[in-house]
Amino acid sequence: MKTLISALLLGAATLGQASQAAAIDPYGYKLPPSMRPKKKAAPAPKKKGPPPIDYVGEFVNFGDWKEVRAFLDDVATRDGFDRAELNTLMGQVRYVDAAVQLVKPAPPGKPKNWQAYSKLIVDPVRIDNGVKFWNDNREALERAEALYGVPAEILVGILGVETVYGRNTGRFRVVDALTTLAFSYPEAPQRTERMAFFRGELEATLLFARQNGIDPLSLRGSFAGAIGMPQFMPSSLMKYAVDFDGSGKVDLLNSGVDAIGSVAAFLVAHGWQRELGGPLVYSAAVSPNRAWEGMTNQGLSAKYRPQELTAAGVSTTVPVPEQQTYGLVDLQNGAEPTEYWLANNNFFAITQYNRSYFYAMSVVELGRAVRLARGGM
Fold first, then answer.
1. If you ran DSSP here, which 8-state letter would residue 336 be given?
2. Selected residue with higher pLDDT from 237 and 15
3. Residue 258 is inside which H or E element, if any?
4. Among candidates 154, 138, 112, which has minimal Cα distance to 369?
5. Where are the domains of the chain?
6. pLDDT in tens, 72-116
7. 300-333, pLDDT tens digit by residue?
8. Is residue 326 within 8 Å of residue 302, measured between CB atoms?
9. What is the CATH number of domain 58-95+170-226?
10. Contact (CB, 8 A) for 23 and 67
11. Could you please report the per-residue DSSP string of 351-375?
């Protein structure tokens, strides 16, 4: 009997397994939908992201390029470099196509959107790191403000926007990126001018490396050749970098104190005025008659007196200092209404760091957010 029961149980189990493996039972009857085996869903195809950035590039023997040889001849004559040493250096330089692609302007598409941009920049990561940076470098920030007249929150704002206080300083070899852009800049309306600019930056890199006794190939930076926490181009590094920590050398990659002093020196050299004081921007409203419209495209400068702005239909919620001049800044918000601000000369000094209203306003907003997060008023 036990043998018979075992055989029946085994048969039932076998039939059950067969039933689950097919849409019909062993007797030819279709199984109800609830009992039919469920097909495993095919895995969703992975979304393709952008390809990884190639920071290394490829060897193309720049030294064989006619324009490169002429440039090296000029540099050797003008700056006293050994021509053979320049040949050896150029024999190690690589063409970086990623730099060419990244320098191209974004294709036309979505309209500018200040609110979306500001959310990416004025974010918790930058604010939290900004509080720590401010606390760790409080003395240097106070000293820079006393010496240069640039408030701590503006310096903190710039260094946060640029590299999140040194976290993202760039992974390209600077000489590779600059050589690529100096001699293989993509087709563009101002290609000749841009190539001349990058050749000047390449020369400045060689001079900086010689002056500081470092291997030029050891310098790392952005795809455009910007270096260190403040992302100075090499020519700016030569002109404005400051040994603010008194170490005997300028180190914008590892010294937050040097970065603070250098950014302050740059702003003063580009029009920052200590005596202006007060806010850099004032929220504004514009009248429907649009007499003010021509004031929004007048370059990166503050040229209008408050009386002129009022006459054109521009008003502010709080009085602005009458002795200053202002520019009318429009921050587009995609399909939403444009924001308008009156900005003084110190705001436009920030635009000399990066020629963008969005950039300068994000510096102001991030610096303010960090100050408030520290408990400042």
1. E
2. 237
3. helix 256-269
4. 154
5. 58-95+170-226
6. 999 999 999 999 999 999 999 999 999 999 999 877 777 899 999
7. 999 999 999 999 999 998 999 999 999 999 999 9
8. yes
9. 1.10.8.350
10. no
11. TTTSS-HHHHHHHHHHHHHHHHHTT
Specify the pLDDT at position 268: 98
Q: Which residues contact 307 (CB under 8 A, 6 or more apart)?
A: none
Residue 333 sits at φ, ψ, to 5 deg, of: -125, 45
Q: Which two tokens stand for residue 364?
A: 């102001």
Q: Which of 153, 162, 201, 203 is catalytic?
A: 162
DSSP H or E segment with residue 341: strand 336-343
Q: Give pLDDT, residue 18.
A: 45
Residue 2 has pLDDT above 50, yes or no: no
This prediction has a pTM of: 0.85
Calpha distance 187→227 (Å, rounded): 25
Q: What CA–CA distances, in Å, run from 135 to 5, 31, 130, 157, 359?
A: 81, 71, 8, 14, 24
Between vectors from CA 306 to CA 305 and to CA 311, what angle results, nearest 5°? 105
365 an active-site residue? no
C-beta separation of 240 from 266 below 8 A: yes
Q: Give percent above pLDDT 70 in the chain.
A: 87
- Alpha-carbon distance of 165 to 146, in angstroms, equals 22
